[in-house]
Design goal:
The complex is a heterodimer of chains A (281) and B (373). Chain A is 27% helix and 18% strand. Chain A has helices at residues 14-29, 50-59, 77-89, 138-146, 151-164, 193-196, 269-279; strands at 35-36, 65-70, 93-94, 103-107, 120-124, 175-177, 181-183, 202-207, 212-216, 222-224, 251-255, 262-266. In chain A, helix 1 (14-29) packs across helix 2 (50-59). Chain A starts with 13 loop residues before the first helix and ends with a helix. With 373 residues, chain B is α+β, with helices and mostly antiparallel strands. Helices cover 40% and strands 14% of the residues of chain B. Chain B is built from twelve helices and four strands. Chain B has helices at residues 8-24, 34-40, 42-52, 57-66, 71-82, 156-161, 192-201, 204-215, 284-296, 313-319, 322-330, 337-372, and strands at residues 100-105, 224-237, 246-265, 268-280. Chain B has a four-stranded antiparallel sheet. In chain B, strand 3 and strand 4 (268-280) form a beta hairpin. Chain B starts with 7 loop residues before the first helix and ends with a helix. The chains are: A alpha/beta (281), B alpha+beta (373).
Chain lengths: 281, 373
């Protein structure tokens, strides 16, 4: 039963959920393909996770355990807001522990911990079209996807190398899915891209304002675009987390004073806390 | 110590309490009621209903109060409520020619059947602040025109259409239900029904600026305000289970029909073309801007070259919604730490490579000049 009886379980009415589930099923059937869906107006602003929230609402069941992160952290304000939304409208259990969650809604990060087959990772997506900044027109980008015409993207990456010596894309780094569709992984740092490949969990992507859903079924091959002589490189992590000592996790840089002082800490708060918990007796 | 993002939950709750307090303002001043907003700020209410796509004066007034007068926020509140409402079906098309006229003007004919009716308008007021209005202003008692309220006013476009001078309203080509962009994602190229729906929900300021741009030569359409009318129209609905039409009530609408420059060809004599604007309540500026844009967006249909922003449907329709626009612009307030960190890492790397390359070059130059000495 919904905790707030004025609204249906998880806010959306069942017809809407059915419509979204159909889009999700289609997305799973064609990995990396952007499925248009009749995105609803949600009681939170566009660009603040309305796509992710709709996907989560459509797949959420009464026995699910939900985790919501933003920037890898459970306690960032928008993650708090979305978690409370589902606590209120669905009455489901929530957690900050990655391994306890059955559904994880995320913005900008993939958890450091290995996900399992029992889990669904829901991404919030602002601009689902990886070609959008190269070609602003939707009919044109749809045509390019249909014809697998990704030359423009390779030219862009090549120009980066010519200008900077590197592919100068550090987040929302485009990937090729199952050897077919070029896909935007949402604005996660490219550090996270390898985690998408062959992932046991189902990965769902929701873009509310742009009205698109796409998906990566479990164990899908996801390859970050690169060149033979300029292979994809994961962003190197040069520091250690000053709280848990992790040396291979994505770190946030915290400015501690105006004298150039800074410290590095894990962006994934649950990962960091778990490590600290295990380290202490 | 690192505490920056901790306590988000408590901070959010406290911020919202502060908002509620500031909304109330100084408690020595009486609290505004939603009914006062509905009656005395009715043009704001109209705008919120129009862009919120929901005709409900009381809810729109409540939304304005809750939003502290921020109309886009109020529109958002109304939209988020509207989206939860069940859809029973679509009404029969409005017959705006049978409107109970409260205002009706034409800029194309000095006099015409039904006459010119100014109605409640800011036009011709001198924009001088009126200190009397600060509080307890006396209520005016306007004179009524002879003939009273029952004005039979056929559309100007019908009058000139009788002589074939303006294109006929083509109506819908198919019997398919009218599109609804809140139920199906927009695709391009779009049909006129969806374009008009998007424009009716579109931000008044955005439509105004783009309509204005067509007047300044960016997609010029040579418009005349054939007619602007405002008044009450009956809304009629035919429920499937009854099989006959029932009147649900009346709503206030503003309609603007622009008469635009001719079109013709080898197979067709030249005719004026049309642009149409229709809004909830008295929203004249919006209706006029909408009519300009509707016409400009028919470029493809009328075989015109689309060169200006106002003629570009994907540009106009993808960006005219204030709720979408404000959400995405304001989402920049949300944390972007991890992406920014990824950029910082790359930028530092590029800068150090640049400095190293620079040192190598400088050393080579120094070495070269030393060798030359």
């Amino acid at each position: 039963m919904s905790a707030n009886s004025a609204y249906n379980f998880a806010y959306l009415d069942e017809q809407t959920k059915r419509m979204i589930r159909r889009a999700i099923l289609k997305a799973i059937a064609i990995p990396g393909y952007q499925v248009p869906f009749a995105s609803r107006e949600m009681p939170m602003p566009y660009g603040w996770g309305t796509g992710g929230v709709q996907v989560t609402a459509a797949v959420l069941g009464a026995n699910d355990v939900l985790k919501v992160i933003d920037q890898g952290a459970d306690d960032t304000t928008n993650a708090v807001s979305i978690r409370k939304f589902f606590e209120k409208t669905a009455g489901v259990a929530t957690t900050t522990r990655t391994r306890d969650a059955t559904i994880i809604q995320t913005r900008h990060r993939i958890p450091e911990a290995q996900l399992s087959e029992e889990q669904i990772l829901v991404y919030q997506v602002p601009i689902p079209e990886p070609l959008r900044f190269l070609e602003p027109r939707e009919p044109e980008t749809r045509r390019m996807h249909a014809l697998e015409d990704y030359g423009l993207m390779h030219v862009k990456l090549y120009e980066d190398i010519a200008r900077h010596g590197h592919i100068a894309t550090t987040y929302a780094y485009p990937v090729k899915v199952d050897g077919r569709y070029v896909m935007d992984p949402s604005p996660t740092p490219k550090f996270d891209n390898p985690k998408m490949d062959d992932c046991p969990a189902l990965q769902l992507f929701g873009a509310g304002r742009e009205k698109r859903i796409y998906a990566l079924p479990p164990y899908t091959c996801v390859v970050s675009l690169d060149f033979e002589d300029h292979p994809f490189e994961r962003t190197p992590i040069a520091a250690k987390c000053e709280l848990c000592g992790a040396d291979s996790a994505f770190l946030d840089e915290i400015v501690t004073d105006d004298q150039g002082g800074r410290m590095f800490v894990c962006s994934d708060t649950d990962y960091c806390e778990s490590r600290r918990g295990e380290a202490s007796p | 110590m690192y505490v920056a993002v901790k306590g988000g939950e408590a901070a959010i709750a406290a911020a919202h309490e502060l908002l509620a307090k500031e909304r109330r303002g100084a408690t020595a001043v009486p609290e505004l009621t939603a009914a006062q907003i509905r009656e005395q700020l009715v043009l704001a209410v109209n705008r919120v209903m129009c862009e919120g796509s929901l005709y409900d004066l009381d809810l729109a007034a409540l939304a304005i109060k809750q939003a502290r007068g921020d109309l886009i926020e109020a529109i958002f509140l109304l939209r988020a409520y509207r989206t939860t409402l069940p859809r029973f079906g679509a009404s029969a098309p409005f017959d705006t020619s049978s409107m109970q006229i409260r205002r009706r003007i034409s800029a194309t004919f000095k006099d015409l059947p039904g006459g010119q009716n100014l109605g409640p308008t800011f036009d011709f007021t001198h924009r001088l602040l009126d200190p009397e209005l600060t509080e307890h202003a006396p209520v005016a008692r306007p004179q009524r025109a002879e003939g009273g309220d029952d004005v039979a006013a056929p559309h100007v476009t019908t009058l000139i259409g009788a002589q074939g001078l303006i294109e006929a309203n083509t109506g819908r080509e198919s019997e398919a239900p009218v599109g609804d962009l809140t139920r199906d994602p927009m695709t391009f190229p779009s049909d006129r029904d969806l374009r008009l729906q998007a424009l009716a929900r579109g931000d008044e300021g955005f439509l105004l600026a783009l309509g204005y741009s067509t007047q300044r030569g960016y997609g010029r359409t040579h418009p005349f305000a054939g007619e602007i009318r405002m008044g009450e129209v009956e809304i009629v609905f035919k429920p499937d289970e009854l099989g006959f039409e029932v009147a649900l009530g009346t709503i206030t609408l503003t309609e603007c029909e622009m008469v635009n420059q001719f079109k013709g060809g080898a197979d067709k004599a030249p005719q004026f073309t049309r642009g149409c604007g229709l809004t909830f309540g008295h929203s004249e500026r919006k209706a006029m801007a909408m009519a300009l844009l509707d016409r400009a967006l028919r470029a493809r249909e009328l075989g015109e070259e689309a060169v200006a922003p106002a003629q570009d449907e994907e540009f106009v329709l993808s960006h005219c919604d204030s709720v979408q626009a404000t959400g995405f612009v304001e989402h920049l307030k949300l944390p972007h730490y991890v992406d920014f960190q990824a950029e910082l890492t790359l930028l530092r790397q590029l800068r150090s490579e640049w400095a190293q390359a620079r040192r190598t070059t400088d050393a080579a130059i120094v070495g070269h000049s030393e060798a030359a000495e």
